[in-house]
Amino acid sequence: MSRQVLNWLPATAVALLIFLLSHQSEPPGSVVTEFLSDWILHFAAYGVLGGCLVWGATDGLRRHLTGKAALLILLAAMLYGVSDEWHQSWIPGRTASAGDWLADALGASASILSWLFCQDSLLRLMKGRRD
Q1: How far apart, in whole angstroms, are the C-alpha atoms of residue 37 and residue 125?
Q2: What angle, 0 to 180 degrees and rounded to 10, lies between the N-to-C axes of helices 38-57 and 98-130?
Q3: Per the domain annotation, does 22 fall within a domain?
Q4: What are phi and psi of 92, to 5 degrees?
Q5: pTM of the entire predicted model
Q6: Domain that holds residue 119
Q7: Distance CA 1, CA 6 (A)
Q8: Is the CB of residue 65 less than 8 Å from the CB of residue 115?
Q9: Among 1, 61, 64, 65, which residue is least crowded by beta carbons within 10 Å?
Q10: Is 7 a member of any domain?
């Protein structure tokens, strides 16, 4: 399997995990929401998804992420969030929520923008370690 394909596996795995958790009437983490806001969990899950999308788009953090690529993967994460909320609306005991989608979008935005703004320093640091 090529490295390019392998670089997209983490994003695929996270998206699959989000789907599987969304498909349950009472996901395993529902006990956690008694202590943490559901929005924090959405923010974190989509932050990880955004980071995995960055990983795939940058060939495992070997290349720069362009503004256009950042926008495209952010849109992909946001559309996946919309589809996730729509999917939940069909599951007994679950509902779709604009607030959850907003937390999804903010989580993905945070991780994607963090890489976009810090990548020059981080790539220089990583290049020094590879040499």
Answers
A1: 36
A2: 40
A3: no
A4: -55, 135
A5: 0.88
A6: 49-131
A7: 7
A8: yes
A9: 1
A10: no
Question: Hey, is 64 helix, strand or coil?
Answer: coil
What's the number of domains the chain is made of?
1
pLDDT by residue, tens only, the chain of 131 residues: 798 899 999 999 999 999 999 888 876 655 555 657 788 999 999 999 999 999 999 999 999 999 999 999 999 999 999 999 999 999 998 889 999 999 999 999 999 999 999 998 888 888 777 65
Residue 75 amino acid letter:
L
User: What is the torsional sign of CA 5, 125, 14, 54?
Assistant: negative
**Interior CA angle at 95 toward 27 and 104, to 5°?**
75
Give me the sign of the Cα torsion angle 69, 71, 74, 76. Answer: negative
Q: Which amino acid is at 56?
A: G
